Amino acid sequence: MVAVPGFHRALHEHIADDRALVAADGDQLAGAVLFGGASPRFAVHWLVISEQARGRGVGRQLMDAVIDLLTAGRGLAAGDVVEVVTFGADHPGAVTSGARVFYERLGFVPAEPAEDGPEGGSRQVFRFRT
């Protein structure tokens, strides 16, 4: 996904608005997370890790940094939530991507269904409460 042109366009827009964190591996993009929102509801819009960086903790580091940034710098208060939309349990990508397990390990909890993805597959909101 790091090579998807739409991702780079969104990344540059989020960087300009101070709503992105980026991880580098030398001069290569290892991953990035795009986020936004305001109290009481923040959102992770897009988390992308390069194929070469997967399994090395880059995603966890980026998500931990987002939670820390929102908590310290953006006023995440008790009762606020951070939401992310990922694959629904019945989506083939749910297992192959590891996304659902990843977010659960970070303390996110599955919540209500979300609008289907562009390919028609199911999506679900995962929520992290402070």
Tell me briefly what this model is.
This protein is 31% helix and 35% strand. The protein has helices at residues 5-16, 58-72, 92-97, 99-105, and strands at residues 20-25, 28-38, 41-49, 81-87, 109-114, 123-129.
Indicate the multimeric state. Answer: single chain
Strand content: 35-45%
Helix-residue proportion? 25-40%
**Shape assignment:** globular
Record the strand order, biggest sheet.
1-2-3-4-6-5
H/E element sequence = HEEEHEHHEE
Number of domains: 1
Q: From the helix content, strand content and strand pairing, which structural class follows?
A: alpha+beta
- Largest β-sheet summary: 6 strands, mixed
Poorly predicted tracts of residues: none
**Average pLDDT level:** 87
- The radius of gyration over CA amounts to 14 Å
The CATH superfamily bears the name Gcn5-related N-acetyltransferase (GNAT)
* Helical segment count: 4
Number of beta strands:
6
CATH level-3 fold name:
Aminopeptidase
CATH class: Alpha Beta
Please give the CATH architecture. 3-Layer(aba) Sandwich
Separation of termini? Answer: 29 Å
InterPro entries: Acyl_CoA_acyltransferase, GNAT_dom, YpeA/RimI_acetyltransf
Keywords: Acyltransferase, Transferase
Domain N-acetyltransferase: 1-130
Pfam families: Acetyltransf_7
